[in-house]
Every structure is written in C-alpha cells, then in structure tokens.
Design a protein that fits this description.
mainly beta, seven-stranded mixed beta sheet, 9 helices, 104 strands, about 10% helix
C-alpha cells in the first residue's frame, strides 16, 4: 500500500496547530476547576492552516514493498507493474521533481509576503482602534412621510472609539419603549441603530434625533416624521392620494401576541370567551390577520356553538352554550410574515347541577354512524362518575329537524354506548341526544348530535358516471343495465355487524339485480342447526340493509336469512348467516367489557397550581376511548374529577389546584362499555412549581459611585424556579468592548454589589445571573451604560428595591430601601410619586416627607395598574428619583385573607394569625412591626403550620401596640397587616385572664320553679360542663345532700345542675347557694328566698299540691268558660278529665239546679250549658259540679260585670256581622227603620244616628227591638226628620254600621203611606163592632127561653139589626129585640119551639163600618139526645134573666155562660172612651132543667143586605182581628 509523503513545512504547521489547541483546552479546564460557579465556557477559535493548504503540492506516492500474501493479490500485481516500468520512468520523474521544487519555492515566497502584508494590516487596524475618536454618523437619519396606522423605521450608522452609545429622542424628550408597550422598538444590529414606530398616529409627527455619545464627544442626527391622515378620516389629506392598502396579504403582517388566554374553567350551560390581545404591524382595519382556532388539533369553524372574531387588536373565541364536548386544548394560530404565532391553553367544562341529587353527569360526543334510509347507529362517550352511583344504562332520544318534541327511542336503558335506532322516515332529518341513568335518577341530556338525514346509502353505489371527451358526464343507473327485472335477487353476505348483550345488528348487501320497484326486506331467524325459521320483522317494513334484533335468548346461537321483496314478489332466501350468539361482559367473541385498570400513576410538580400526572396503559385496552383522572386532597374522603371528557393520552396536567395543598390522583379507562376499575392512587404530592433555574434578574440600577467603584442593585427574578434564589453572579464590561469580565467568583446573596477596580470616566455595562438549587439561570439583559464618575452632589442618591405589600382593590403599601449615597447630610425623609401605567405624569402622594421607609397608599381604582418611584430628602434638597417600580395592579389575590387577632381558647395566649391563600415549599412567613422585621424579638414567638402562621405575644402590654404585617415569600405577593390598638389589646387581655383563670360561664343563675305535686326545683344552667364536674348545694350555710326530701342531680349535655325539694314548707325559707368546680374553672350562684318572695313561692307550692290531690279524682281540666255560637246562643262550657261512667255532673244557677234538656255526657270529656236569647236577666253565678266515689270538683262562673260585658260584646260581634241593611216600614204611628240580625238585645251597645247626631229614645223617636231585629220609629214625621240615618253596633273592638237615606222621593212615598195607614187605623178604631158576649152555637130544649145578649161599640153609636135565616127579626111577644144605652143589644125568644131553630145573626154598623156575627140555634125536644155542636164547643144556655151590666168584660171560663174570651175583645186604646160597665150576656130558660149549651164563637157581622156575606168577612172595614203594626210601648 502506498503512503503519502508530507512536506516538512506542512508537518511543522500541523504540530503547531495541535500545540495551540492543547494550550487553549488546558486553559479552559483550569478555568473550570478554579471557578466557584458553573458558567458556559467560551468556544476556542479553531486555528486555520491557511499556509499549509497554500504550500501543499501534489503528493508523490512511494511504493511500499511488503511480503506477498494470498490476501493481497491486487497489491502484488501493482508491485510487478511498477518494478517493470520503474526504470523507464525514473528520468522523467526526476525532471518533474526538479520543476516542482522550483515552482513550490516561488509559491512559498509569495505566501510569506501575503502573510506579512495581512499581519501588518491587522496591526494597523488595531492601532487605528486604539486611536480615540468621537462619534460620527456614517449614515444619517432621513425624513419620512407616512400614512396613519402604518409603521415607520428610522435608522443610522455611527462609528467612534470607544463604541458610542446611541439614545433616541422625540422632540427633545427621550423615547421610552416601556412607557407604551408595542409602540416603539429600538434595535442595534451590526452597527446599524434603528427606531421602529408601529401604528403611527398624527401625534407621532415630530422631529426625531439619534444622539451618539462616548467619552470623547457627542454627535447628533435629526430627521422629521410626518404622519398624514387620509381624506374623510377626520383631517385633510395633505398628500392628495390614498394609498391602496388592500393589496397587502394578511401573511405579510407582523403580529406579536401580548395578553394570552390562560387555563379556563366553565360549567355546562354557561358561556366563556378566550381572548388573546396582539400588536399588528401595520394595523389595517380592512386587513385583519388570519387567525385559526383549534380544539385538540381539530380546526374549528364558526357556528351557533362557536363564535370567532378578529379585530381591535384581539382575537376572540366565544362558546355561548358550553357542554362537556367543548372541553379540550384550544390553540390560536395566527399567520405572520415570519410564519405563525401560536398559543394554547386547556378549557375545562364541569357538570352542571344534576336534575336529581346523585344523578350522573350527561354523556357527550353524540354522533350518528352507518346512516341508512330507516336506520342509524348512535354512539357516545360515557360520563365520569366520581362520587355518584355507577351508571346502569342510557336512554336515546330523537327529534325531527324543525320540531321541538323529543321521542325516547328505547324503552329499557341500553348498557353500552351504542344504540341502533330504526323506524326512521326516509328523507327526514333527525337529531339525537343521550341521557345516563343510575340508581339516583336520570342525568341532564347531552348536547344534541349534528343533523342526520335518513337516506339509502346503496343508491349512490348504483350510479355510474361516464366522461365523454373529458367534458361531459353521463350518469347511468344500474337499473338501466339490468334490463327489465321484476323479482329481485336475494341479498348476500348476511352477517352480524354489532354483537352486544343487549342487541345484535344484522347487515347484508342489497340484491343484484334489484329492479326498479321499491324494495324491502324480510328477515327470518332460527336456532342454529334446527332449520325452524321464524319471521322477526313481520310488523316492520324494512328498507335498509341493517336491522337490530333485541329479543335473543342468552346462551343460544342463532342463524339469520333475508328475503328481498317488492311489489312483484319475493326473492329466494339468502344464504344463512354464520351462527350468532349474544356475548356477556366476559365473552370472547369480541373485545367486550370495560378495559382493565390503568397501571401505576405518577404525579410530578408542574406549576404552583397544577400537577403533571402520567400513568401506564391498561393491559387490556378493548377499544379504549380515553381516560378520566380523579383527585383527592390528602385527609379528605371526597374525590373530584380532574377532567370531564375522556383524555386519549397517558399524561395529563391537572389545573386549578390549591397552591401548597397535598393531593393524590387515580385514573380510569373508558370505552363503550363504561369505566374500568380505578387505578391505584399515586403518591401524595404537594402542589409546587417544578424545579428549574431562576429567570433573569432585571432592573439593574446604580446606587452610588466614587470614581473607582460603583454600587449597583437589581431586582429579583420574576420566577424563582421552584426553589429559593440563594446566589447572584455579576459580570461587567467596558461599554465599547464585547468581552465580559466576572466580578465575583463567590456568590452574592444580597441584591446589592459594589464593583471595584473601575476607571473613572469609562462607561460600564453589567449583567446578573441568579442561582438556586437547580443551577445558575440565564443572565439578565445588559444594563444601560453607566459612567464611572464620582458623585459629589449634596442631595441624596436614589432609593432602591421598591416592593409592594398588602395589595388590595383600593390600597397597597409601598416599601423601599434607603439610598446608599446620602449626600452632604443625612436623609431626613422620602417623597413617593405615583403614576398610572403608560403615563409619565407622576403625582406626589405625600406633601410632607415621611421618615420611615414605607407608605400606605389608598384611593386606588380597582383593577388599575400603577407605577411608583421614591425620592430621598435631606437638608440640601430632594435627591434623584429611584428607578420606576414594576407595574402593580390594584387587585387582591383570589382567596386573600387578613390577619386575625384573637386569644387562644386553651392557653389564653394573645396572637396574630394569617392563613395564606397561596404557599410553596420554599415560602416563609416574615413578620414585621411597623415594617421592621421581628424575627428574633423576645416579645413574640412565631410558629407556622401548613398555610397558617401565628405570632404569639409572650408578655403583651402597651409596648406591643403598633402595626403588624406579614409577607409570604416566594408567592405572588401574599401579605396582610393588622393594627393592634389599645382597646383591642385590653379586650383580649381580659379574655386571656378569663381563660387562664377560668370561670364557668352560666347561661342561667340559680333559680327556682314550682312543679306539680307542690315540689320545688332549684336549678342553674352552665354553658358547658365536663363529666368530671363537682358541685354542692348549701342552704342557710348548711350543705344539703341528696336524700330523703331532696334529690340532687346534673346533666352534662345540657349543663343543668338541680335540686328538688319534695315538701316545701315554712322551714325552707332562707338563702340557697350552689358551688361548682370543673377542672380549673369555678362558679358560684346564690338565691335569696325570704319575705314576700318566699310567701309567693310557698303559696304556689301549696296550690300545686292541692291541684295534684284534686286531679286524683274527677276534675275539671278546663274550668267554665263561655262561647257564642253562630245563632247567638251563649254556651257555658268546660272540659273534664279522669271521669268514669258513674261520675255525675250537675249545673246550678244561684245554687238552684238547672236540668238541661240534653243530659251532660262526661265521658265525652266536655260539657256545655246553652243559654238562648241571652240578656241581663241571665246574670248570676253559674256552677258545675263533678263527683263520684273518688271525690268532687266544682267550677263556678260569675256572669256579671266584665264577664257580662264580654258576652254582650261577643253577641254584638256576631249580630253586627250578620246585620242586614236598614229597611223602611210604614205604620199608622209613623215611619219605622228596621235592621234584621241573628240576635238583638237591648244590652248591646247600639246607637242610632240622624245626620251623624245620636238619637235618644223619646215620644218622637221611639227606639226598640225584638230578638230578630232592632228598630227606630219616627212618630208623626215631618220634613225636619228627613236625612241620613244609621245604626252602629259596637262589639268593643269593631263597630258595625248600617245606613239608610230617608230623603227625596223615599221620604215622600213613606209619608204618603203613613197618612194612608193612619186613616185606615182611625176607621178601624171607630167602626161598629160586637165587643163580646155571643156564642157561636146554642143548643136549647123546647119550651125554654133563649136570651142572646152582647155588647156593641162604635163612634158614633152604631145601628143594631138582628136576623134569622137572613131575615130581619122584628120585636114581638115571642121574639123581643132590645138595644139599651147604645151599648147592649139583646134578642130574647120566649118558649122556644123547633121552629125557632136556625141561623141568627146581628149586624152592628156605623159610618166607619160594621161587623156581622152569626149564631146557630138548635132546639131539641124533651127526652131527645142533645145534638153535638158543629161550630166550637157547645155550651148549655142559661135561662134568660134581666141583663145586668157587669163592671168589666168577663174572662172566658168553662161555665155554661157563653162569656167571650179576652182575646176576642180587643181593649180600646187609652185615648178612646171605654164604657163604664159591660153587661155580661146571659141565656135564660123558663124551665127549671138545663136549657141550653152555648158554644163560644167570634162575632161575624154581615151587611144589612138581605143576603149576608160569609162568616168572618167584614165589609167595608178590615178584618176584626187584623191589628195595625203598632209597636208595644217600652
């Protein structure tokens, strides 16, 4: 083999390169070993072997002779060839070698010259770089004129030594990109400085300048920017044209995402919006950026359930009707000129409140598959069940599009998450939904599926499309190719496409040929091997090649065959299917059943509110849909769902956890059969951020400089990386160089560092790295160049390290550190300035400087963001302001709590406590008093447990008054404060003393009560008693123990201690005391029971003793009381107890027994005595007695005084409620107003009023009433009685009023009626009449004398006429008629004969009228039986005698003398003259035997006409016994 000959100079160069690399590598290793921190080493520059490559000539290959071997046949052949020709070519080779040496020498010399030139040129550049040079603009700024809302870029190139620093100014004011985020962008790339202004507005029109500065001078370049507004946009367009902007494609826009949507949580039925703000350059209203939204990597499209909007510097996605289907990872993708900008976050959607407690959540992801003309297969995903009962099945509902009515498809719940819906109408569109069922109830319905149209899927397969010349399509149906087919072919490939325990779905291929007639199918089944076929769809006309079969028996195998049928007939049967058997949950034919449980679950830290959970897949997947993850707080038994939609991957981030809390997790696998068993729980994990290196510090500022050193400070990293930042490393560099130099090899723990060894007048830059237990983080951005120049000002330097505490909605506390440079005098105070974010207008919050280094700021707007700065003040003035603080939003953290000042209930310690709403593993509670740390203060002791920290005062007194605050480190600002005042401290000191020297609190002190049987109970109640309580009763300085006559006990549950005295007598008068000991606590309570108090207690005890004795026999459980019924009957009632059948009951009034109509029934438990028509006459003492062999009890009730008034008021209440309206009644005496009611008595408080004036009873106005009504009569009315009348009935509480208006036509009609009745009454009063004395029937024996005598009256004196059988009787010797004194009229018949029998009558009449009275006379012979009287009772007539006028009318009697009754003879009015005497009518007989038996009868006058009117008819006057309605006198 040939070897390559390398020239000597090339060998030397290679050796040099290797040596240089070794040197650099060794140096780097040494630096790593000696350094005290980990840092990225600088890569060593590789040495370029330029000279070697340039000097290299074509290498000469020298043959190498080696021993021949069988393995080197080719090399041997080469050797023979070379040895054969070497002699011939040796001369040629030598000549060529000589030529090449000469050429090589020339090339080497040329390369040496070039290398020398380059070296000298490099040294020249280094020499030029070392020459100081002031800044100079190689490319100056140029002016720009742009349209509004378009960007503009100003750029320039500047040189100088050292490298200049460029600052930008607008109109002389510095340009600050942080003041308006997204507005300005300052860049420095490859020596080109640029200022980019995005979305220019008219106010951006100004002169812009770039000022370059180094230590040798300053250079400035200026240019103007003019922003124009198009015409019609609010200002005139100065350029005269409007640029055509629509030609810009959205992908050419520059988009930067700002505020991004975070992990969100929603609830079913609610709504949510995901918003991401952005900066678009240029921002053109008519060309928004192209934004796409994805859910779980699937592109979303706008619909009723998804609303999208892009514009106004924001992209928004709104989900107006949330369902669990919406849960997932949402991604926003915006196309920019650099590609795409993306952001993703998870949306969780939890179950809404169930329709019934314990009901499951709603299913989700309802979709329809295998769509046919009358068949659809509906599938869905099962919900998660955490604490609910397992799901037992599902109901599937459908509705047609356009209808709101849902129809349930399955009668019994289906067990799996699939269901074949058949019986659809071809061409109709449907929606489907699903509801889950468990033992507690039915869930809410799922979101409805997309619209599905029932169409025959086989129709499209029967179409063929033929293209002609690539232009035209000809569609041919299979029907056209089949020819004329009547009977269809048989179906083929009959098989079971879905086999479950609940059902089997049969599928087959349509027949071919099919025919044009409409086709349907008939299915038959049989048990495999039997051949006994049965039709199974006899009632269903099946059009689809799918059919679900539900009624198959378990354990049987079936075969199926199908017929094709149309109007022409049926095909042959298809080939039978393979045997089909329903599968159980553990079947083997298909992968049925739920999956096995997932494997090991591992949870790791992620963020402060989330945990990363991962698990192993189940051993048996079984068509896995996804996983559900559940979580539980350690110590709690309640699990909660972490996701609500099956998640397909084996890892998941659980969000929304409580920072610092400890959780365990488990997973479940889900498929169409349900959920698997739960996996094993993960190990407990605390919610903490994952460990990482901290982010970069920021805000580097200079605090002091003395010309040789600079003191700088910086702010903590925004993210600590999950562990405490314990180290800072600072690098520095000269502003005009690129190389950084380490300042400290040993870590700095504070955020202040003094950098020594600097050169005065030089600009320096600094950067800082933070370190924690995970390592050293990224370095900060280089600080602004800082000039090392000694500070000699008399004012103080800037304060630094501004921080915030106790941030709330309207207040916060600003804290800072004192300036390092104090100036010519000590710092005496501080001024704090505040501005809203984005504003440069600072407002000084305190007009007078505060001496402490904190300030409470109030009056903030909630949700507004502010920035602050602090200026130190000394005797020489106000110093430089501090660096502006980080923006702070005036909004409290969620769950923020305040410090609680309280007293420990066990120890009595006074403490301040705070429960943090957020905490991490590295968090500490830092307590301060007046914002000065009290970590090692002997007056307080701080303890922390979990998220709660307590500061306990050791010896609290006035020295502990002040404002206490606590800050929780490594959180988002959890802090709080509390001002301890003197009043609050005194209150807590009192409570502390009470706890340390406890007194048993008493709910009730010692008291007594009288029990039944006359026992007296002394008791007290403590707030709380322990089982070890001890106590004693002391009565009159002597301890009383439980024994005879005394019973002492206590109840720990109620805290009651009691003593019962069985026999309470005069000896028990005195002082009672109870002393209690319960652990350390004591209590004592006393009761003085003497004098009147004791007498009252003794009297009550004796009464209760007697009551007990009384109740041993029959007794009144309720003593007598009264009630009033609806009909105004007064009932005296009572209730009795302990009675038996032998018990007797008696009523008494004024000691006289009352025997009621209905005997009292004591066994009913109640007795009552009715008193109808109650009035004053019923006053008195009523008594009821109850007695038997066991004893006697009495109840008395005195109806008088107030009791009587109460009864009357009760009657008045009933009567007033039932009172009718006033009615008018005319009488001969006047006009009467009447009010009807249930009951009326004059004892009621009744008032009549006329024109609101009370009426008193008089001759003019008479007031009275009956049991049914009250009336008031106006006698002899006149016009002055006109007006409004009312009656008022008062029941003591309410007044019932009824009215009547007696005026106008009502009065006129009433007055006319009164005059008419008055005249009629006068006529009736003065007409002729028979006052009395005549019988109705007279029976007399023959030959006796009959005398009919009566008294008549009338004014003027009436005329009297007698009639016999309607013929006037004249006076004869046999019949004698007399009329004496105008008052007495007689008809005497001497020696009567049978011919004298007949009807006799008398007619008495004057000008006012008269009366006609009839008498029947019967004459019988001696020895005959006396005939019976036909009218009235016959009475024997007395012999006629000479009439003797009696003094007064005789009363009716049972004697034979026919004397009329008093009722038959109305007494004449008092004003009417009455006869002085009235002779008694008599009947005489000349015989000595009883002559006659007269029958009394009312006189019946007849007119004088020959034919008298019937008996009892009076003409022309009213009937005899009709009286005028004249009220009786009172």
């Amino acid at each position: 083999m040939a070897s390559k000959v390398i020239p000597w100079y090339k060998k030397k160069r290679v050796s040099q390169v290797k040596t240089d690399y070794a040197y650099h590598h060794t140096k780097h290793v040494v630096q790593q070993q000696t350094g005290s921190r980990k840092s990225s080493s600088k890569s060593v520059s590789q040495v370029q072997a330029q000279a070697t490559e340039a000097m290299a000539e074509p290498a000469y290959t020298v043959p190498v002779f080696r021993q021949r071997s069988s393995e080197e046949t080719e090399e041997t052949e080469e050797y023979q060839r070379v040895t054969t020709n070497v002699g011939k070519g040796l001369a040629v080779i030598q000549e060529e070698l000589h030529r090449m040496r000469i050429a090589t020498k020339a090339q080497v010399e040329s390369l040496e010259i070039q290398r020398e030139v380059r070296g000298r040129m490099m040294r020249r550049g280094e020499m030029l770089d070392e020459i100081p040079k002031m800044p100079d603009f190689l490319v100056a700024l140029r002016p720009h004129t742009v349209w509004e809302k378009t960007p503009v870029k100003l750029f320039c190139t500047v040189q100088g030594n050292p490298r200049p620093i460029v600052k930008w100014y607008k109109g002389g004011a510095p340009v600050d990109p942080l003041s308006v985020p997204g507005k300005y962008k300052i860049e420095n790339k490859y020596g080109v400085h640029s200022l980019i202004i995005s979305r220019c507005v008219v106010s951006d029109t100004a002169e812009y300048s770039a000022v370059a500065t180094n230590q040798h001078g300053t250079a400035t370049s200026k240019a103007s920017v003019t922003v124009k507004r198009p015409s019609g946009a609010g200002a005139s367009c100065q350029l005269g044209i409007v640029p055509h902007l629509t030609g810009i494609h959205p992908s050419k826009l520059e988009v930067s995402l700002l505020d991004r949507f975070s992990v969100s949580f929603g609830v079913e039925g609610g709504s949510i919006s995901l918003v991401c703000t952005m900066v678009v350059v240029p921002d053109l209203p008519n060309i928004p950026p192209v934004a796409q939204w994805y859910r779980d990597d699937k592109l979303l499209k706008p619909s009723k359930l998804v609303e999208m909007a892009v514009g106004g510097s924001a992209a928004r996605l709104t989900l107006p009707h949330l369902a669990k289907d919406d849960e997932g990872l949402y991604t926003l993708r915006i196309f920019t000129k650099d590609g795409t900008a993306e952001h993703s976050a998870y949306l969780f959607v939890s179950d809404a409140t169930p329709s019934a407690a314990g009901a499951p959540g709603a299913p989700m992801s309802v979709k329809a598959y295998d769509i046919n003309s009358d068949y659809v297969l509906v599938a869905w995903k099962p919900p998660n069940t955490v604490n609910e009962a397992p799901i037992t099945g599902y109901f599937v509902d459908r509705r047609e599009s356009g209808s709101e009515t849902w129809v349930q498809c399955n009668d019994a719940p289906v067990k799996v998450c699939k269901y074949p819906v058949h019986g659809l109408s071809t061409g109709h569109s449907y929606h489907f939904r699903v509801r889950a069922v468990n033992s507690a109830g039915i869930s809410r319905a799922s979101r409805q599926s997309d619209k599905v149209t029932a169409l025959d899927a086989a129709e499209s397969e029967r179409l063929q499309v033929i293209k002609i010349e690539g232009k035209y399509d000809i569609v041919i149906r299979d029907d056209d190719l089949e020819g004329y087919v009547t009977i269809p072919g048989e179906p083929t490939d009959v098989h079971a496409s879905e086999i479950f325990k609940s059902y089997v779905v049969l599928s087959w291929k349509p027949p071919s040929p099919r025919g044009r007639a409409p086709l349907w199918y008939v299915i038959e089944k049989c048990i495999a091997g039997t051949g006994a076929w049965q039709r199974i769809n006899s009632s269903v006309k099946l059009h689809s090649p799918r059919y679900p079969v539900f009624d198959l028996q378990d354990g049987q195998k079936y075969q199926f065959r199908v017929y094709s049928v149309n109007m022409h007939g049926s095909s042959e049967a298809s080939a039978p299917s393979e045997p089909v058997q329903k599968v159980d949950q553990d079947g083997t034919e298909l992968p049925v059943g739920v999956p096995s449980a997932p494997g090991q679950v591992v949870a790791t830290r992620n963020t402060k509110s989330s945990v990363f959970v991962q698990w192993d897949s189940p051993k048996h997947m079984k068509s896995l849909m996804g996983y559900y993850i559940d979580g539980r707080v350690v110590g709690s038994k309640e699990w909660f769902p972490c996701n609500h939609k099956p998640f397909k991957r084996n890892r998941f981030v659980v969000h929304g956890l409580i920072p610092g809390e400890t959780y365990v997790f488990r997973a479940q696998a889900a498929n169409m059969f349900g959920l698997s068993e739960e996996s094993q729980e993960s190990s407990p994990i605390a919610v903490e951020p994952a460990l990482a290196t901290p982010s970069a510090p920021f805000g580097i500022t200079m605090l002091s400089c003395d010309g040789a050193s600079m003191t700088v400070a910086w702010k903590s990293p925004k993210h600590c990386g999950g562990s405490k930042v314990n180290a800072y490393y600072i690098d520095q560099r000269n502003a005009d160089t690129l190389a950084w130099k380490e300042v400290n090899l040993v870590a700095v723990t504070e955020r202040v560092c003094t950098v020594d060894g600097l050169t005065e007048g030089i600009f320096y830059e600094f950067k800082v790295q933070a370190g924690n237990m995970a390592g050293v983080g990224v370095p900060s951005a280089p600080s602004a160049p800082m000039k090392c120049e000694a500070w000699t000002m008399e004012e103080p330097g800037p304060a630094y390290d501004l921080s915030f505490s106790e941030v709330r909605g309207h207040s916060l506390v600003v804290l800072w550190k004192a300036p390092v440079y104090t100036g010519a005098s000590a710092v005496s105070g501080y001024l704090v300035d505040m501005a809203k974010k984005g504003s440069s207008e600072f407002v000084t919050l305190n007009q007078e400087a505060v001496s402490h280094r904190y300030l409470q700021v109030s009056g903030l707007e909630e949700g507004e963001t502010y920035v602050f700065r602090v200026r130190a003040v000394n005797a020489n003035g106000v110093g430089k302001p501090s660096q502006v603080s980080e923006p702070v939003c005036a909004r409290a953290l969620p769950g923020t709590q305040e410090i609680v000042a309280s007293v420990d209930g066990d120890t009595g310690d006074i403490f301040l406590s705070l429960e943090a709403c957020e905490i991490c593993e590295t968090s500490k509670f830092v307590w301060s008093k007046n914002y000065k740390s009290i970590a090692d203060c002997p007056r307080a002791e701080v303890t922390t447990k979990g998220r709660t920290s307590r500061m306990t005062f050791t010896h609290p007194d006035k020295d502990d008054l002040g404002k206490y605050s606590v800050v929780v480190t490594d959180t988002d600002g959890v802090s709080a404060s509390h001002t301890l005042t003197e009043d609050a401290l005194n209150t807590m000191l009192e409570l502390s003393h009470a706890i340390r020297h406890p007194v048993i609190p008493l709910k009730h002190g010692l008291n007594y009560e009288i029990l039944e049987k006359g026992h007296v109970r002394f008791w007290l109640q403590a707030v709380k008693l322990s089982p070890s309580v001890s106590y004693r009763f002391i009565v009159n300085d002597k301890e009383v123990t439980s024994g005879e006559g005394h019973k002492i006990s206590h109840d720990v549950a109620t805290g009651i201690i009691q003593m019962t005295v069985d026999l309470f007598t005069r000896a028990n008068e005195g002082t009672y005391t109870v002393q209690i000991h319960d652990g350390k606590a004591k209590a004592q309570s006393s009761l003085v029971l003497v004098g009147d108090v004791f007498k009252a207690a003794l009297k009550e005890a004796e009464f209760q003793r007697k009551e007990h004795i009384r109740k041993q026999g029959p007794h009144f459980s309720e003593y007598l009381y009264f009630t009033v019924t609806e009909d105004c009957t007064v009932l005296l009632a009572c209730k009795v107890a302990n009675v038996k059948k032998e018990t007797t009951f008696h009523w008494y009034r004024e000691e006289e027994e009352i025997v009621p109509e209905t005997p009292p029934n004591v066994m009913s438990g109640a007795c009552a005595l009715p008193i109808p028509l109650f009035s004053r006459k019923d006053q008195g003492v009523f008594k009821a007695t109850l007695s038997d062999d066991r004893g006697k009890d009495t109840s008395a009730f005195d109806i008088s005084g107030q009791v009587f008034d109460d009864i009357i008021n009760a009657l008045a209440q009933n009567a007033g409620a039932s009172a009718s309206e006033l009615v008018m009644q005319c009488t001969p005496e006047g006009i009467r107003l009447q009010c009807y009611m249930n009951y009326y008595t004059e004892e009621m408080k009744t008032v009549w009023k006329h024109k609101e004036t009370k009426i008193a009873s008089s001759e003019k106005m008479r007031i009275g009433g009956t049991a049914e009504m009250a009336w008031m009569q106006i006698c002899d009315p006149s016009d002055k009685e006109k007006g409004h009348y009312s009656i008022e009935i008062s029941d003591g509480v309410k007044t019932h009023s009824r009215t009547f208006d007696l005026s106008g036509q009502a009065y006129t009609d009433a007055y006319e009626e009164y005059l008419r009745l008055k005249a009629a009454a006068f006529a009736e009063k003065n007409r002729g009449r028979v006052v009395g004395g005549l019988p109705d029937v007279v029976t007399i024996m023959e030959h006796k004398s009959l005398s009919l005598t009566c008294t008549v009256w009338g004014e003027p004196t009436p005329e009297v006429t007698w009639f016999k059988n309607e013929q006037e009787v004249t006076s004869t010797e046999h019949t004698k008629v007399t009329f004496d004194g105008g008052k007495f009229s007689s008809l005497v018949i001497n020696k009567v004969t049978p011919e004298d029998s007949g009807k006799y009558s008398i007619n008495v009449r004057n000008k006012y009228g008269g009366e006609f009275v009839e008498i029947t006379v019967s004459v019988y012979k001696h020895g005959e039986q006396i005939p019976e009287a036909k009218l009235g009772q016959a009475k024997m007539a007395t012999p006629a005698t000479t009439p003797v006028p009696p003094k007064s009318p005789a009363l009716p009697s049972k004697t034979p003398t026919p004397t009329p009754s008093k009722s038959q003879t109305p007494a004449p009015p008092a004003k009417t003259p009455t006869p002085a005497s009235t002779p008694a009518p008599s009947m005489k007989s000349q015989a000595s035997t009883p002559a006659s038996t007269p029958v009394p009868k009312s006189p019946t006058p007849t007119p004088k006409s020959p034919t008298p009117t019937p008996r009892g008819v009076k003409s022309p006057t009213p009937p005899r016994f009709m009286k005028s309605p004249t009220p009786p006198r009172k």
